Amino acid sequence: MTVNMTKGQAISLQKQDGGTLTAVRMGLGWQAAKRRGLFGSRTREIDLDASAVLFADKQPVDVVFFRHLQSDDGSVRHTGDNLVGGAGQGGDDESILVDLQRVPVHIDQIVFTVNSFTGQTFQEVQNAFCRIVDETNGQELARYTLDGGGQYTAQIMAKVSRVGGGWQMTALGNPANGRTFQDLMPAILPHL
Amino acid sequence: MTAELVRGQNHPVSQARVEIRVSAGTPVLALVSACDDAGRLAAPDAVAHPGASGLPGVQVPEAVAGEHRIAVDLDAVAPAVHRLGVVLVLPPGGPARFGAVPASYVAVADPEGAELAGYTLTGLDAETAVVALEFYRRQGGWKVRAVGQGYADGLGALLADAGLDGPAATALAAVATGLVPSGDITLAALPTAAPPTVPHGLRAPQDAAAATAAPSPPSPPPAPEPLPAAGAPYPGGPAAAPGSSSADTVGGPPTIDYAHPRRRRTTTEPPEPGPRAVPSPEADRPPAPVAGDASGWSLEERLYNQVWGMFEDLARTVAAYRSACDFAESRMDRELDDALSDPRLRLAGTANAARDAARARHDELVAQAKAVLDRDLAQLIAESEVVEPALPAAYARWANPVWHGHGVPEEAPLALRLGDLHLPERPDLRIPMLVRAPLERGLWIDNGRTGSEAAMTMDTDRLRRAAMDMAVAHAVRLLAVHPGDRFSVHVIDAAGAGAASLAPLVAAGVLAGPPAAGAAGVTRTLEVLTRRVDLVQMAVRAGAPEELPPDVDVADQLLIVHDFPHGFDDRAVTRLRYLADEGPAVGVHLLMVADRDEASAYGPLLDPLWRSLMRLSPVPDNHLADPWVGHAWTFEPDLPPRGSRVLEQTIDRIAAARRDARP
Which of B86, B118, B358, B443 could make an SS bond with B107 (beta carbons 3.0 to 4.6 A apart)? Predict the structure, then answer.
């Protein structure tokens, strides 16, 4: 059962049977918006990048993105850069796997961001979504659809944070501007 | 090509006539049990053993031997029989447990003699009887499964577990192991002694139970040694009903989970029936590690991948621990600074409280990180304990028993163990340092005292000797794990300073020639090898590797250079650099035993040479970094245990194999 999340909504990452999740995958998919052109509709390639920033006490301590595909402790892994996006088939174009049991104890928040590396704004992106999947059985736990349009080049999608002994996910969906996660740091900090 | 099975893995058997080959490190008894579809023995006569060696379709050997060949005709097996178990038993009077002998190997071969599947029985310890393989009916055909289920209480326990009731099982076990002549059995009247293969003292409740449950023996058991027969000398408690399940008693067999711990079942085919599906009592415990459960085509490759997986896991889990500790430290420093720099706090006298709070937060985080680290390390240690004994000779420590049963292999190894790696967090968790063979880079064993702290404390002579001994151990390992004619070792020892270490190699005649001495010897050896590199390179480039002159040795070559640059002129140095650069691609490998400082007269000319070699040290030294996180790992050489003659024995075996091959 999938929860369709809205901005600001938080869900607890518990299994339906009450057990805690051990591994989740943050999937990102998008499609370039069709533009009207002289020769009918055509699309331009858009390179969106998913990144995960690991925070300890509101300080960034590690980051996983297309230049650093695995956190030093191995708990957060990026499956690789996708430069063009899918054809809107609904599959994930980029994924970040989080092994929640192996996340170092001092990491208390992981923020997921999406940047348009090629610099196009999200106006030119359609069908973009971010979803979180229980990696052990492939079940989708939550899906958050980016509302299209807007003159910005990045989104702070969601964060996963420690609550008590478990984890919870919060949909953030905040627009920002920047080509990589570094440009987003000032925008991320208020959400911690 | 032979499929190498791991415990629990199965393989289809398409032929009806197959031969089971057993090669054990010690004389064993081979039996075959025929079970019904529930995995139970119908009657004592469903076991083919030396006393009654025939079953329909199966004939077992009657003697105790290290090698067995059992012919099986699967078409002739009775239709009621659904499983055939191949059982190995240590006979009385021999070794007391499988853990004390080299791992046995069982294979299934077709009538032409080609092996279809093989299985090495690793990880056994106190067991004296083991179900090695099991043939079972599957969708109209037969399959074979690697079982490896051992029984510390011997054949009696094994048979009892297969459904024979206690007295019958022990009686049959006694007959099968040759303690009672098979002619005059009346099963009911047999003395119900514990099977004589039971090690004394330990793990006895099951036998005690069986013994006390049986009617009191009319005569003392005809055992060669006093045995715990009737009277229950063990605190085994009240007698259990004969044949009752013993899985929950102390002596019960260990249970195996046949499910792959990290693989999900993908097909919709119903799971194949396991021999005994025992649900794990503690489901949330991490699965028990299994040697060779990584991906790969052969067991060798799976173990290689598993070792590298352990290496990466250890690197990452320690990285997590260190980063948590660093963070805790820096946070405490920051909070202490804040507490001290705030004058209000100082005046109010709450500075102490703030300081204590900061310290407490630090300690709490470190304790949490430590708990996680300990959990992961415990898992890795358990895995290491399973993997280390299962390693083949090329990967194994010199202390591993596999070296004692090591024969000349048929194929070159996939990788080699150069030594052990560990981190200061857990110095006793040693990761084998495996590198792919053939080596892409030459090796440099640094015998200089300025190389590391541990070397500084040793005197020069001992350090040099240790370095050369290490080089010899590597050479012996390389010779032993390559097929006889596929590897040769040359030595340059210009001043003869390494003669003491080299003596066993020279005496056994396993080197390509005597160690080259003096400037002339250095030049000659380098010339031969340079010529070989040139010719093989030319032949490979021309696409005609067969067209080499007959005097060119196509085997891989290892050149050990001791005492560099003694005896080297400029021309020889250039040649050596050429070999280091061009040699590995065409099978000429360099092993330098040298002190970099002694060659300092050459200035920066030799820097590329040293950089191109992989530096190892004869003493523990933390100069190696892993490819993931970049921790400094402490390298420790793996040398034969003190007082062990494993190196000499291995050299003798190599020499014997080469003598046999030559004429």
Answer: B118
Same domain, B148 and B15: yes
| B141-151 and B129-138 beta bridge pairing | antiparallel
Tell me whether B319 touches chain A (CB under 8 Å). yes
Residue B324 has its nearest CB partner, among A70, A74, A104, at A104
Rounded to an integer, what distance in angstroms lies between the CA atom of residue B369 and that of residue B378?
A: 14
Are B458 and B350 contained in the same domain? Answer: no
> Which of B196, B236, B237, B189 is closest to B214 using CA atoms?
B189
Model pLDDT, residue B182: 44
Q: Do the strands B443-446 and B588-594 form a parallel or antiparallel pair, or are they unpaired?
A: parallel
| Residue B282 in domain | no
**A56 touching chain B per CB within 8 A:** yes
B374 touches A: beta carbon within 8 Å: no
B-chain residues within 8 Å CB-CB of A74? Answer: 312-313, 316-317, 319-320, 628
pLDDT per residue over A15-48, tens digit each? 655 567 788 888 888 777 666 555 655 566 778 8
Q: Which two tokens stand for residue B632?
A: 């400094």
Q: From the list B312, B369, B629, which residue is nearest A104 (CB)?
A: B369
Nearest to A73 among B323, B328, B365 (CB): B323
Q: What is the pLDDT of residue B346?
A: 66
- Tally of domains in chain B: 3
Give CA–CA dist A85/B41, Å, rounded: 61
**Is A68 an interface residue toward B (CB < 8 Å)?**
no
| B41 and B165, same domain (yes or no) | yes
- Looking at chain B, the number of H-run helices and the number of E-run strands are 13, 21
B336 touches chain A (CB under 8 A): no
Residues B108 and B167 in one domain: yes
Higher pLDDT, B178 or A107: A107
- CATH number assigned to the domain comprising residue B609: 3.40.50
Paired sense of beta strands A48-56 and A109-116, if any: antiparallel
B615 domain-assigned: yes
**pLDDT score of B160 more than 90:** no
Closest chain B residue by Cα to residue A136: B264
Nearest residue, CB atoms, B324 vs list A70, A74, A105: A105
Of B424-428, B563-567, B615-619, give the lowest mean pLDDT range.
Answer: B563-567
For residues B385 and B485, membership in a common domain is answered with no
Nearest of A34, A110, A109, A103 to residue A75 by alpha carbon: A103
Same domain, yes or no, for B463 and B524? yes
Segment B374-424, tens digit of pLDDT? 999 999 999 999 999 999 999 999 999 889 887 788 888 999 999 999 999
Both B66 and B199 in one domain: the answer is yes
Domain boundary among B213, B228, B253: B213
Domain that holds residue B28: 3-213
Residue B414 lies in a domain: no
> What amino acid occupies position B550?
P
Which chain A residues are closer than 8 Å to B365 by Cβ?
105-106
Domains of chain A in sequence order: 3-191 (2.60.60.30)
**How much is the pTM?**
0.65
Reference A86, options A4, A134, A28, A141; nearest CA is A28
Q: Does the beta-carbon distance from B320 to A75 stay under 8 Å?
A: yes
Return the residue of B nearest to A56 by Cα: B327
Among B312, B323, B372, whose Cβ lies nearest the Cβ of A61? B323
Give me the pLDDT at residue B209, please.
Answer: 39
| Check: complex ipTM more than 0.85 | no
Distance CA(B260)–CA(A167), nearest Å, equals 28
B78-99 pLDDT, tens digit per residue, is 888 888 888 888 888 777 888 7
Question: Final residue of a domain: which of B159, B192, B213?
Answer: B213
> In this complex, is the C-beta atom of B626 within 8 Å of any C-beta atom belonging to chain A?
no
> Does residue B644 fall inside a structural domain?
no
